[in-house]
Amino acid sequence: MINGERIRQARELRGFTQQGLAEQVGVNQSAIAQLEAGRTQPSPIVLQSISFATGFPASFFQQGNGPDFPLGSLLFRAHANISAQKKNQAWRYGELLNEVAEIMSARVEPRSLRLSRLSEDPTSAARTTRSDLGLSPDRPIPNLTMALEKAGVSIFCLPIDLDERDAYSGWSGHDLNKPLIVLSSGRPGDRLRFSLAHELGHLVMHWSQRGEPKDLEEQANWFAGEFLLPEAAMRSDLLPPVTLMSLAKLKPKWGVSIQALVRRAKDLQIISPRRYHYL
Fold first, then answer.
1. Which stretch of DSSP H or E encloses residue 179?
2. Upper half-sphere CA count for residue 80 (Cβ side, 13 Å)
3. N or C, which end of the chain is more exposed by having fewer CB within 10 Å?
4. Residue 265 in contact with residue 271, Cβ under 8 Å?
5. Which residues contact residue 25 at a Cβ distance below 8 angstroms, ignoring those fewer than 6 apart?
6. What distance in Å separates the CA atoms of residue 235 and residue 62, rounded to the nearest whole number?
C-alpha cells in the first residue's frame, strides 16, 4: 500500500504544488489530491513517475508516517513575503532530517536533556540557561553548537537556503520532549551563531507559543543578546568611546557580528540611539 502522506511530504519538500506535480507525472491535479488523501492507489506507472519527479525511491512511499514534527517557531517567524509553499518546504526538510536522526539515534546512547522550559523574563532565562548548560556566566561560549548538542538539543542544517529565514526550532516527539533547531544553509558563522541563540530562546521561553509574534521575536532577540553577550561582560568590554575599530577587536572574542555588538550596546544604553544609528 502506498502512503498518501509520504507523497505529500515528498511533493512539499521538493517545492511542488499539487498542480506542479500533476504536470510532472502526467495526471490531473485531482488525481494527486486523491492519492495524498489515501482515497486511491497509484498505478505502477504513476508511482514510477512520482518517484522520478520527486527523487524518492518507490519504497519510500510505502513507509508509515514518521515521528511527530512541529511547525514550532515557523508559526511566528514567517515573513509576510514568504509563501506557504516555502514554509512547507522548510518544515518538510526538517521533518525528514529529524526522522533520519531518530533512526540513527536508536543505535547510540542518548544524551540526557539539560534544557529547562522557563517562564522568566528573557534576561533571567538566558542566565538560567547558561547555568543549565554548565557555561560561565560572563565568558564567551567557545562552541555554541557543541554546547547545545551536549545538552540534548538536535541541530540540523538544511541543504537549501531558506529565503528571509535563518533558522527555526521546536519541541518534537510524541511527548514534545525533544528540542531541535533547524538551520538554513548559506549563512556566515557569526549570523548562524546568533540564530542558534535566538532559537534557543524560543525553545526555552515559548514552548507554549502564547503571545504576539512580534513580541515573541523581540523576547528571543533579547534572550540571544544576554546569552551570547552577558551584560556584566559587555559593561566591562564596551568602554567609551565605542567605535567600529573597538568593536572589530571584540568580534572574534565573542563570535558575533559587529552589528550584534552595536545592538547590544544600544539595548544596554551604553551608547545613545544617535550613536547606534551612526555605527
1. strand 178-183
2. 1
3. N
4. yes
5. 32, 46, 49, 50, 53
6. 58
Starting at the edge strand found earlier in the chain, the sheet holding 178-183 runs 154-157, 178-183, 167-172
Kind plus residue range of the DSSP H or E element containing 132: helix 122-132
How many residues are listed for the chain in this entry? 279
Can you tell me the distance from the alpha carbon of 205 to that of 70, in angstroms, rounded to the nearest whole number?
16
* Cα 36 to Cα 1, 8, 96, distances in angstroms: 12, 6, 17
- CA quadruple 215, 216, 220, 221: dihedral, nearest 10: -30
pLDDT digits (tens, 9 = 90+) for 69-103: 888 887 765 454 567 788 888 899 999 999 999 99
Q: Residues 6 or more apart from 16 whose CB is under 8 A from it?
A: 24, 53, 54
Question: 125: pLDDT confidence band, cut at 50, 70 and 90?
Answer: very high
Q: Compute the distance between CA of residue 194 and CA of residue 93 in angstroms, rounded to an integer.
A: 22
Calculate the average pLDDT of the chain.
92
∠ CA 182-188-190, nearest 5°, is 85
Beta-strand pair 178-183/154-157: parallel
- What is the per-residue pLDDT for 80? 47
Longest dimension (CA), the chain: 72
DSSP of 70-117: --TTHHHH--TTS-HHHHHHHHHHHHHHHHHHHHHHTTSPPPPP----
CA-based Rg of the chain, rounded to a whole angstrom? 22
Residue that has been written with the C-alpha cell 551536549 in this structure? 150
Residue 279 DSSP SS3: coil
Q: Sign of the CA dihedral 185, 191, 197, 202?
A: negative
Phi, psi at residue 14, to the nearest 5°? Answer: -85, -5
